[in-house]
Amino acid sequence: MVAAEPIIDIHDLHVRFGRQQVLRDISLSVPRGQTLAIIGESGCGKTVLLKSIIGLVRPQQGFVEFDGKRIDRFSEQELAQQRTRFGFVFQNAALFDSMSIAENILFPLRQHKPAQRKEHEQAMLSCLAEVGLPTSVLSKRPAELSGGMRKRVGVARALVMNPEVVLYDEPTTGLDPIVSDVINELMMHTREHFGVTSIIVTHDMKTARKVADRVIMLYPRTRLEGDEPQVLYDGAPAQLDVADDQRVTQFVRGEAGDRLMEMRSAKAEG
Amino acid sequence: MSTGYETAPRRRGLLGGLYDSIADLGAAVLGAIDTFFDMAWFVWRTLIWLTTRLPRRETLFGNMYQIGVLSLPVVALTGTFIGMVLAVQSYTQFREFGMETQLGGVINRSMFRELGPVLAATMLAGRVGSAMAAELGTMRVTEQIDALSSMGANPIQYLVVPRFLSCLLLIPSLTIMAVFMGVMGGLIYSVFILDIDMHHYVANGKLFTENWDLFYGVVKSVFFGATIGLVSCYRGFHCEPGAEGVGNAATSAFVQSFVVIIVLDLVLSIVLDKIYTVIWPQSQMAMSLAG
Fold it and tell me: Is a pLDDT exceeding 50 seen at residue A126?
């Protein structure tokens, strides 16, 4: 079997904020059509990695290739054009407060295809139906919707430009188990119907197991010794429970171990 | 193995404390230089986008409404009372010399050249600047600015340019309004409360003010408007996370705008007076400026 060509290639990525090294020497390749889940504890750099893929965070070293082209070499206009091939679902949906739901979903279309106004409404209604929201929400403001509905509007907005890659930043965080599973189903449906490549940053092991073809686990840079790689696991979700690295199985099972003691002693040291 | 992000440990002892203080000072200086260049880059990008692509009409008009129309009552009210306060403060001294009819000249000139532009700008830095910084700061914290970028929109073009343009175009108009209301406030108080003869008050007002004074105030207000727009948007864009970050962005937008306005006021006053003496060297004012 021939492996699908990579749509995203990350080479030797290093990201640092001031004196804080968040990502070090990250390299990975995402084949077209794959659903990749990135797991790891808070502060390990999952969201930073996701934002680096779309150029929202500039790495100090290394680069990201999208469809064979380095994104750091794009001009501002070229990067803006390339970003229309992505959909990004933010952790809290990041809907524009000052706009109605309809204006939020239409925003990317109005920005990039201003001449095709007649097709906009059709595309918006189609995306709204995909995420299972009634048309009555269109005139509402984001603040009037529940967290789950806002998230679904976020997915609709991400899909309206027919992207090739959809990036999800903690799509089920803060949602009840039923709505979380609705979002999981939606991500699977999106992949099946639109054939998109998906990268999902999540803490939710249920999401990772249910939706992903492949899981990678990042570990906080500051908890690693020397040149130890930051990616502790890269494989199938089914193998997570029997991973060789104890830190992976500990995370997957959600066991604190001696972490509380470590945190207390670190605080005492000051 | 450590927890949390890597940061340099604090040193112990007298020498260690001294070393840390010097390091902190160095970091503060480097931070200030970094902020200066970052802000210069922000201003440059705003000007480039301003000349590349104008904002959509509905975005621009929405901002103009927020910045201009909604500020009108407060600017008019402030202007009126400033004119009246000027009359109250100057009256006693002018009366001692029997020059109370000269109040019109003093009030009008002060309003046109100094108090109108500076007070309107201060008022607007508080009302408009803080609101813009808080709004953009909230957008930054809630990832709405990242969302704009991720959809291929440029946040500078979409968020900063319309606000900057609105400030640039409407703050001069609001200044003219403040000046007009101040002049009227001074006139009403002087004539109807202090019982100064209206004919002489108006005649002296005309004698001591000229078109140049209005131009003087409007030129200042254009610079003040640009300052409020750029400083406030910059603070909003560089907001730290959390409610405290948004609050700090709003406060620093006002404080920094105000400081820049005061410094600009001095510089512009000197430059505009020089220009006046070059254009009208024989005028009475030019000769008094030349000493």
Answer: yes
